[in-house]
User: Fold Sirohydrochlorin ferrochelatase from Phaeovulum vinaykumarii.
Amino acid sequence: MPDALIVAHGSPADPEPAQNTLESLAQAVERRLPGWRVRAATLAAPGALERAAEGLHAARVYPFFMAQGVFTGRILPDRLRRAGLSGEILPPFGTDPDLIELATRAVAPLAGHGVILAAHGSRSGSPARLSARNMARALRARLPGTTVAVGLIEEPPYLVDVARALPRAACLPFFALAAGHVCDDIPAALAQAGATGSILPHLGADPGVPGLISAALCAPRSGAGIVI
Assistant:
């Protein structure tokens, strides 16, 4: 029986909702993969990773993160090894080339006044910013003539400033799970900017995500993963 584990950061302030959402996602993925065992854990939920890893063998680990950074490259491998799990960590959700199609379908009907890709950013490094910019570049190629801008929560260009420049643009939250940034910070920044465009569901909630993850888990080894 092939084993898989979907891992996300979660919300340290309120870990249970994100853990429940991720477990529901794992169940949806498992329904698409007969014979597989698919579990889920957030790093923020106490003991969740250790419980999910118990009994898994040579698992394919899917990081439900938006960028390849410190968490996916260093913290996650260390946590998995300490939990006694072996296998391979796949490239993260936000870097999956198939995500471009989901994002394009989500924004295309509302892109007439532009699109703002609202992303986390980081005070400590560029991977989160780079991942969002790569997605914005891909959306511009898919939607010729459409203005697609990146607005960040934790570093320039700040979302509130981008929204002031594009007040009628649709906003697509470039996030895997809904937590404080999606539920609070993004709406607050858009309101502060006086923006009137639609706020779309965050990308991790797209109905096509279980199929995307299923395909990634079944794909031949590419050498891009991290062996644990």
